[in-house]
Amino acid sequence: MKIRFEGLTKRFPNRNKKIKAEVVAVDHFTFEIPDGKLVGLLGPSGCGKSTALNLICGLETPTEGRIYFDDDDVTDIPAENRGVGMVFQSYALYPHLNVRKNIMFPLQNLKGEQKMTKEQMEAKALEAAKIVQIEELMDRKPNEMSGGQQQRVAIARALVKMPRVLLLDEPLSNLDARLRIQTREEIKRIQNETKITTVFVTHDQEEAMSISDLIVVMKDGAIHQIGKPQEVYDQPTNLFVAKFLGTPPINVFTGRIEGGKLCIGQEEILGKDYVKDTSDQEVYIGIRPEGFVLREGKDGRLDGKNGVFSASLLAVEVMGRDTSVVFSHSMSEIEGTRHRAIVSSDNQIDPESQIVSFDLNPKKVFVFSKESQERLI
Amino acid sequence: MSAHVDNQESGRSSITGKPTYRKSSTLTKLKSLKAWLYLLPALLFLGIFMVYPLIDVLIYSFEEGYNSASQTSFGTGWFNYAYVLHDPYFLQAVKNTFIIVIITVPLSTLLALLISLGLNSIKKLKEVFQTIFFLPYVTNTLAVGLVFMIMFKKTPYTDGLINMILAVFKTGPIDFIDGPYWAKMFVMCFYTIWVVLPFKVLILTSALASVDEVYYKAARIDGTSRFRQFTHITLPMISPMIFYLVITGFIGAFKAYSDEVAIFGTNLNSAGMNTIVGYVYDMLYGDSGGYPSYAAAAALILFAIVFTITVVNLLISKKTSIR
């Protein structure tokens, strides 16, 4: 099932009645979610991603624009008849029903030709329970299960009627760290097995990056970038996307392009090969933590004493596989930011030294216009 | 500061260290003694004002012709119970009480549920309507009773408001206050329901509001009809509150008395509208008063009835309980 949005817009009246202006939760969405993919809607809280999900399932009606499932216009079809499955952030399992009855609940609503006998429903419920591996828990009540198990029941309930689209609202936010990693792989596996087009909402970029086939980065109701996780990470279209993705976050400095050279402060960090013919202007320069490279000195040591980019060393954090170099820089976008570079653990940086210098990997350096914050290079 | 810490340290080690059996048993004894000391004021009050009178009533009910002034009686036995159970006034009171209970408890709960559902589904003026429905609760029962009496009463000068309305439909006039039994019972039940409604509406409105909106969202996405949402989600979720209202409603209705007085005056026996509590009161203080033994026996019969019904209620609610 493809999901297609055409100019989809949702405006809410402002909570504060004195302000006349409406809040735009979803602003002119036009894009297509391909069939059978796992898509992550990613953005900070309040960016309208949950509203977008509610528009797909029909709990909210759009102010403008249309939604299509394949070629069916479902915009005016109520939630009851859209045939979507949804997993809520709080799971919304009916506390008075056991797992079996919870999973069977959607099937009992079917009418007319689709109506099933009790045996058929139980068989279907068991089938769904097997997909999420909770078939031994069928007689438990929701409050007798852990968060992860409840999550699975909620997924089973959403899957049991074989929905055309599966929607997950912040599916991992109520789980602890270990369970979160396990469950996100589980979601990926279930999606792979069922091939149901799945849309999930998250504010956690790591979550979105790890399992999505496609990421939609949103802010203030607008789509900032759509693409495969690696693509969005490697080629951010603007400063917001660059900042939102990646842990540790990207390091942003103010700088300028001057005579075909990219400069931060007095230092020329990248030359003509990189800048090409971009005109001279004030810019933001984003450098991924892994974009900092140590250059070998004359004595063959990787001691952080040679390089085009110098900064004040604050700390060297050894993390085993690699090392995190914490530094500050006078040209930080936000003054006093503790920047992080990730370098290989065979470095020989002296933690006592005041200054550290790096070379830069041009692929990990992004230049954004200071005015529009759009990507220039 | 450091001494305090030391104290804590040593205290902890004496417990976690190696407590001998004797040591720990004296400790628990001391602890339970302390607990009893804290409970003492409440226990004293309960003992003097609850337990002692209860036992006293039990004793009176078995003492034949007990006289509270001379503190004497003729003997002991089941005589008081036999008398009360054969007293036509008592039987009338039991009948009245049961009719009021059976009609008003289910009807008022059902009405309250409908009103709360309505209140819960409107958006505009919700608070206004909630306040209006709650007003009877803060109004004096006797005042309300008087208003009811004036509305229903037929006097030589006027037929009363209700009869004037009935006249529009070409029926009546009916004397609701001094007329036939069913008319009086109608007024009584009408009044009782009206008086108990606000509390039930209040409880059920908050119960409905406390059902998480997300369940209805989930149900809608799964294509659940409104009716099924109500029977399979709303009702089970608020069922503890409904059971609470039914149980307290039964107990309250069995103990009805002041409502009857408010409408029919103090001479309930002659109006044929007495209740069990009214009978007990009459036996103690009424024109036929001065019979504490009969009053005690009647009170214990009422206790037995209420106790049985409450136990049955609890058993049913446990069986259908959701959590």
The succession of helices and strands of chain A, N to C, reads EEEHEEEHHHEHEHEEHHEEEHEEEEEEE
Radius of gyration of chain A (CA) equals 25 Å
**β-strand number of chain A:** 20
Low-confidence residue ranges of chain B: 1-20
- The helical percent of chain A reads 10-25%
Percent in strands of chain A: 25-35%
The termini of chain B sit apart by 48 Å
Structural Rg of chain B: 28 Å
Quaternary assembly: heterodimer
Q: Bin the helical content of chain B.
A: over 70%
SSE class of chain A:
alpha+beta
DSSP strand tally of chain B: 2
Name the CATH superfamily classification of the largest domain in chain A.
P-loop containing nucleotide triphosphate hydrolases
General form of chain B? flat
Strand ordering within the main sheet of chain A: 6-7-8-3-9-10
Which consecutive residue ranges of chain A, at least 5 long each, have pLDDT under 50? none
Q: Report the average pLDDT across residues of chain B.
A: 82
What CATH architecture of the largest domain in chain B would you give?
Orthogonal Bundle
